[in-house]
Amino acid sequence: MKTMKTMKTMKTIYKLSNLLLIIILLFSSCSTNNPVPNSGLYENGYFITNEGNFGSGNGSISFVDDNGNVENDVFFSNNSFQLGDVVQSMNIIGDKSYVVVNNSSKVVVSNVDSMKYVSTIELSSPRYIAKVSDDKAYITDWGINGVQVIDLNTNTVISTIACGSGPEGIVISNDYAYVCNSGGWGLDNTITVINTLTDMVELTISVGDKPTSAVVDSDGAVWVLSAGNTEYDANWNVINETPGSLVKIVNNAISIQYDFAVGNHPSDLVINDAGNVLFYSDGSWSKQVFSFDISDNALPSVSLIDRSFYSLGYNNGYLYGSDAVDYVQQGWSYRYYANGTLIDSLQVGIIPGNYCFTEK
C-alpha cells in the first residue's frame, strides 16, 4: 500500500509539472509575439519644458493630459536620471521627442509616448530645433553662431550652416528656414534665410534689433518679432534704447513693418491654429499679452491679458502663459480661451520656459 501511494503521488506531481510547463510556454509565447508596450502615456496633451536653476542640472519636463492632470518630472520618472542644465525647448518629430538642454550642450532624444531615452546629440549651446523633413532637422546653436544640421535617421550632426550671432528662434516655410539672429550676449538684427533643399544660405534680411521669435501664417508669410536693444552704463543706468518691431516677410523680403514704443520690449510671438491671429507679450519690466489679426493695419493699444508671462504658447484654441515666479521655486502654467478668459492654472517645474504640443 505504501508503494502504490507513492506511485500515485509521483503521477500527481508529473501531471502538475506538465501543467506548469504548459502555462510557462503560453506566457512565454504571449511575451514574444504580443509584447505589452510601455507606451501611450504621453500621447494626448502637452509638455512644458522647465529650465531648472542655472548650474544645478535640475531641468525637467512636465506633462499635462487632456483632462488637465499634470505630471511633473516625466523624463526622470521614466529614466531615473536628469535631463541636465537649462532645459531650453522641445519639439516632437515623428514618434520622437527632441529636448534641447542648453547649458549641458546637448539634445536628448526619447520616445515621445513613453519618454524612454533613446540617444543624445552632443552640441555646443543649442537653443531651438525645427523639423525640415522626415530625415532632417535644424538646431540653432549659440556656440557656433549657426545651425546644426541633424540626420533624423541616425540622430547625428551631418553639417553646420553659419548664421549671424546668437541664432534663436527658427521656422520653416516654402523650402526656406528663417533663423532669428538675436545677438546672444551681444547685438544682431538679422534673419538668415537658408535654402532647406541645399542647406545653403540664400540671403540675410535686416530687421529690428534682437529678433527672437518667428511664426508662419496661413499664407506662408513669416512674421518676426524683435525685442529692441537696451544699452546700459557701468552702473546699469539705461543710456540708449532701440524700438522693438514686428515685420512680415513675403518672398524673402519685408512687406510690412510695425514699430513698438521705445522702452517696450516685445517677446514670445505665437500664432493661433488658423494661422491668422498673432499673440505676443509687450511692455517694459511689466508686460501684457496682446493679439494682432494679420489683416490689421496697426498694432493694438488694448491688451488681451493684463499679466506678465515668462513664455507663451498656443494650441487647439487655447492660449498658454508660464510664470517663473521667483526663478527658484516651482513655476505655474495658465490656460486661457483665445479671448483672454482664464480657464485654469497648474503648478509645474522650476522656470517653465516653453510649450510643446502632441497635437498640432
Strand percentage lies at over 45%
Specify the biggest β-sheet: 4 strands, antiparallel
Q: Helicity range of the residues?
A: 10-25%
Show unreliable segments.
1-38
CATH overall fold name of the largest domain: Methylamine Dehydrogenase, Chain H
Provide the gyration radius in Å. 26 Å
The CATH superfamily name of the largest domain is YVTN repeat-like/Quinoprotein amine dehydrogenase
CATH architecture of the largest domain: 7 Propeller
CATH class of the largest domain: Mainly Beta
The strand line-up of the biggest sheet is 3-2-1-29
Key phrases:
four-stranded antiparallel beta sheet; 2 helices; globular; 29 strands; 11% helix; 360 residues; 2 domains; disordered N terminus; mainly beta; single chain; Methylamine Dehydrogenase, Chain H
Would you kindly provide a brief summary of this structure?
This protein has 360 residues and is mostly beta strands.
List the helices and strands and how they pair.
Blueprint: H1 2-33, E1 45-50, E2 60-65, E3 70-71, H2 74-79, E4 87-93, E5 96-101, E6 106-111, E7 117-122, E8 126-131, E9 136-141, E10 146-151, E11 156-162, E12 167-173, E13 176-181, E14 190-195, E15 200-206, E16 211-216, E17 222-226, E18 230-232, E19 238-241, E20 245-250, E21 253-259, E22 267-271, E23 277-283, E24 287-293, E25 311-315, E26 318-323, E27 330-337, E28 342-350, E29 352-357
Antiparallel strand pairs: 1-2, 1-29, 2-3, 4-5, 5-6, 6-7, 8-9, 9-10, 10-11, 12-13, 13-14, 14-15, 16-17, 17-20, 18-19, 20-21, 22-23, 23-24, 25-26, 26-27, 27-28
